[in-house]
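Feature request, filed as a ticket because there's no other form

It would be nice if the structure record came with a short human-readable summary line next to the tokens. Right now we just get the raw output. Example of a typical job, pasted below so the devs can see what we mean:
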Amino acid sequence: MTQVGFVGVGRMGANMALRLHEQGYRVTAVHDRNPEIAKAVAHDMGCEAASTPARVAELSECVITVVSDDVSMRHIYASESSSSLLAFAQGRLFINCATVTPSVHVDVEQVVEEHGGASLEACMASSITQARQGTLYLMCGGKPGAFERAQPLLQTLGSTVRYIGKAGEAAKVKALVNMVMNCNTAALAEGLGLGEALGLNLHVLREVFGQTGAASRVLETDGEDMQARAHECYFSSAHAAKDSGIALALARSAGLTLPLAQATYEQYTRLVALGRGDLDKSAIAELTFRGRDR
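Raw output as currently delivered:
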């Protein structure tokens, strides 16, 4: 497959599209709910800024979707809409990269197959830099045939491509990855916030954390940003709240109570309510450090 379209070209989708474009794929069309974003990305690659998802599918052999939530995902695969991806699903492969409820991926696979196409979830445990460099960590779920068909393209986008199992399984793993990451982020914010309140040197504290049992990937990516109040968005607080909510819903369905995940979810929900959902997940520190605006 050399003709690829994108639905959803925000921070992640745009950089994935640019990566494929540079690696010799023909990006045929892009669509975004914000038409101006689609036009800008299309201009960079000399492709069409499609007015509908259907137009993207019409022009492409493979369509990669990077949308934000369950509602958006169901909208672009709506059976009753002539503007949805299903209008030209016959023979197409759809690779869905959004973190959404696992059952949505199951439903999408079913409806796509009913319309003659194939669907694969390719959940990403990476950020903008990795999308641009083609070093994403991709967790895939769906039919083995769809996974094999997508392999060359996925290998261009990711340095690690793992097949997890049937539709919905990769989404479950991704939800747990983000749940644990969010809990780690909240714990780090509390540790650094308490350290500052105790008058400790936070540069030294971060070094000690990194050399002991307090070490984590989040410390590497977010520790300095929390200290400096630098919350440029790589993974938004709004998405952190959404993804922790997905994991908590899975826990309820399994009959489990997860108090740490629940507390983290409530913190991120509070950030969103304060109008800070578009800040990076590191902004949870704003709720912890003494003297910061709440």
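Something like this underneath would help us a lot:
The chain has two domains: 3-167, 172-287.
The radius of gyration is 20 Å.
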